Amino acid sequence: MALADALVAAGSRQSRRVATTTLLVAFLVAASLVGLGVGQFPIAPSRVIAILGQAITDPAAPLAVDARILLLVRLPRLVLAILAGAGLAICGGALQCVFRNPLVAPQILGISPGAAFGGALAIFLGISGVGLLGLSFACGLGALVLVGWIARIDGRTETVTVLLGGLVVGSLFSALVSLIQFVADPNGSLPAIVYWLMGSFASATWEQAGLAAPGLVTGSSVLLALRFRLNILSLDENEARSLGAHPERERWLVFGLVAIVVASSVAVSGIIGWVGLIIPHISRLIVGPDQRVALPVTALIGASFLVVTDTIARTATTAEIPLGVLTAIVGAPIFALLLRRHFREREA
Amino acid sequence: MKITPMKIALNRAGMRFGSRWIFRGLDLAVEHGATLAILGPNGRGKTTALHAILGFLPLTEGERTAPNRLGYVPQLLTIPAPHALREMVVMGRCARVGLFGQPSPEDYRAADAAIERVGIRHLAGEPFARLSGGERQMGLIARALATGSDVLVLDEPASALDLGNQGRLLYLLNDLRQAREMTILFTTHDPNHALAAADDALLMMKNEAALSGPVDTIMSEANLTRLYGVAMRQFAIPDQQGQAMPVIVPMHARHSGEKR
User: Fold this and answer.
1) Confidence (pTM)
2) B233 CA to chain A: closest CA distance, Å?
3) Pairwise CB contact (< 8 Å): B54 & A242
4) Which CATH class is domain A2-347?
């Protein structure tokens, strides 16, 4: 009887998961179609689908004006928003597992400030494109290596020393970013640096998407493949070890993958905060703590979240609102609510 | 052909944290299929010895003999996983699933068999964190069984349990012991738990070598009095079948001489 009940419960949970996933995919597709259509030059949804269909079936055909706007301006931007949203959210979910702490986000490891410093330095030096990506990537990874060096004491790395190391390195790179802003030319590179740091997909092109996509896709896919192991890494370290995991080694694998995703995203769109912090929470509220389900759902919600906020960012006002500012304005209240809920549940 | 099952041993083992030796010169050996209870006062290094056997900590000196994988049942103090019991137990299959893999139906069959073995099948779908202490302890044992290891190492499995759950736990451990398929090590604060479920006992004495031997000879009044620094008395009382059953009790404070 009890077993039958458990099986029924498991069955309904399974079908609920399928329904949730289908709904989320449908929402992402709908949000993408709307996002491609709206803007200063509105394109009807049927026309959006027609243009996309033609681009696939007959890529060599000459493009009309609306098709050019859609395929060369809005589509690369949409692709970047989907990849960065999914990637940043996955990173947050993975880090929250390995730190066994739901309040951890990619910023915490100092990777974002490191990558931001690299990017700001590149803009200051007049470097763009691959050079900017490379420099922000190198500084993001450099920040991570520095955190690792600080946190590794007597051949062991405790999560708390990693958090503290991330705090120290993050503050250091933030200060260095301020220093660059201080010395930058107020009529030249300073506005570019400030605007870039606020986070935006406004400058998205296929070239930029091509730069960021390999890192975003590789990092996210490998993290997704690790999702069962992430469940185990969220256990006590000795328990995880006794079950056959190598917590120390595998944690650094996760950190490295997060660095690849975050640095790629920062390089093309500046710092877009809050996605990695709140999206994994929302996902856990919907489907529970099992990362085998929660991580793919996190990716879907993260992608939808950035597609929707980016659409709002570029259409709400005539001048574009920086995306990073918008995600913070939306993210902070959501996070405050989640925090209150989290501690209320703990007491209960 | 089955590979000859390995025995578990520490040979002249010592563990030092900073400048403080937790223990030194510790000898310990458990033959395949036997059960060893480790007793000692707080801070004598029981848990550290278990962690050394499990390979969590490298020995400062001495040698360790143990198979690659041991089933480990941690103390109940650790934060319970939020996952459903069945999902928690299937994590025991981690080593077989691999870094990038997902548990297969076969892994779930192993998990279900382990849950069945410890007798909590009716709880399979419940969130682990919402189970009672006794049920969680059984769940952790199921996870250790699901690993497929023929060794079970339990860190104070009874200390957070009420008397009824202690009874169920000891019954299960004794059952596993009598099947002689698994090597079992557990630490405990209660000598009667060693008498109930172990073949041998290891007493971690103060300032002298640890004593070890079969429970019915090593667990003497004199040894245990010395071990805990409190007078202990041993009795034999008839059990439910009228057989003589040894019990060991400490001579604690009592209400002597109080007037009604």
Assistant:
1) 0.88
2) 38
3) yes
4) mainly alpha
